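Appendix B. Raw example, untouched.
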Amino acid sequence: MSRLLGVIRGQKLALVGLAVLAFFGLLAVFAPWLSPHDPKEMDAPMLPPTGSHPLGTNDIGQDILSELFYGARFSLLVGFLSAGISTVIGVVLGVISGYYDRLGFTIMRVVDVFLAVPRFPMMVFLAAFLRPGLWTLVLFFVLFGWTRTTRLVRSQILSERNNGYVEAARMVGASDFRIIGRHLLPSTVPIALVRLIVEFQHVILAESGLSFLGLGDPTVKSWGTMLHYAFGYPTIFISDVWVWWAVPPGMCLTLVVLALTFAGFSLEERANPRLRRAWRRGRITDTPEHG
């Protein structure tokens, strides 16, 4: 872990990404104190930006800046919970499938089935029939988010389980639990962190996409919901309303995804030795594919 932190400290893009993520995280935590109004409080509709309403109000008179702050809470919470649970499940199943061959065969066949299903269309289909809400969204993303992590972790365990230090641990009578926890699991940490960030990106965009399509929870403020109502306004494109209603949530989503990309690239450099060697030789010409 200390080496990982050293890699991050040596990468300016990673520091920028983490700073942006920290900013939005603080914004989400302190939204009740930073918001100028209750996001559900109604004033005159479609007010332009003023001192009382820095970003104006929406079509039902709710303060847009307050919606933006509270939207950060929901969007980031869904992303963090979904990506975290998916990563934990993926690591556990990846370690089990890599260490135990029979269980590994069964788990990987299940992985193949899930990978054959297109993720976002299936989420849209399920969202159309299930009651929207925080845990429904988390269920959608966890259901389809653990498979790639499982595959990558399994590959790492397969390459590590026959190394000399693992064989030595077996010879001195170490249990499977100790071998996995002490020797094999730490080698999966860089992969798990990269997959956590990649899945976080996917969830943030997918949640916004579902909410934009009207399949999110209409009672909760999120950036995707803000975009849904903004683009549903009749004169959004023939007036300057889009500047203070549609642009802010869109910019927030863009900044968060870019920040995750910056942080993820540095972590992937640590997790992927070939990428690290290519970077040092100055031979990287394309952005690596995340996912």
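End of appendix B.
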